[in-house]
Protein: Cytidylate kinase
Amino acid sequence: TKKITIAIDGFSSTGKSTIAKQLAKELGYIYVDTGAMYRAVTLYAMQQNYISETFFNSKELIADLDNISLSFTFNEQLGFAEMFLNNVNVEKEIRTIEVSKLVSKVATISDVRKKLVKEQQEMGKNKGIVMDGRDIGTVVFPNAELKLFMTASADKRATRRYKELLDRGDKVNYEEILLNVQERDRIDSTREDSPLTKADDAIEFDNSDMGLKEQFERIMSLVNARI
Ligand code: C5P
Structure:
């Protein structure tokens, strides 16, 4: 069998990463969560006081981008790679609602996107990769052998994110999460650089009501037809 590139895009909390992790495990591929990279840059911008809920000094962030080093380290116990920002494990910090509220603003900046897209293309140059995000099938790997576009109702997505955060022991409010998911989708879909959109050759999956097992089987048969 040959190694392929699998690109998974879609709105927030549509279950992209769950499917991507399963696929990578089944195929022995690398899984890259590109949202984690945008989140890590956002965390850095927050730490340096370049961004808060009331201001965003994008010029200072852009001038500082070369000092941001991102890497993933596979955690055997967890079964997935954790995000490191300048050699510090930030896997927990990047999932907070504070980061979620600011990340889409940071992701509109072209210089940020250029840096991350370049790193993502480097990680995928030998194929055998499953990458999820918003612009993977359109910008990062326009020639990916398999492109998936995931959708689900806003309510289903907010419920999913709410449960995830509750499970981690975070104090969260459903309304706040629903608003955040909708606001991120709005910014992600309307930004000028690499807006979230389905690639012409992507296959759409609405998993509002589809079970995970059924979905995984359907996607695996698409994979098998290509390897
Ligand atoms: O995937 P996740 O929800 O963690 O992504 C967080 C945010 O990062 C998205 O809402 C989007 O603003 C940005 N993002 C992006 N391009 C990607 C991945 C994520 O703009 N490829």
Summary: DSSP finds nine helices and eight strands in the chain.
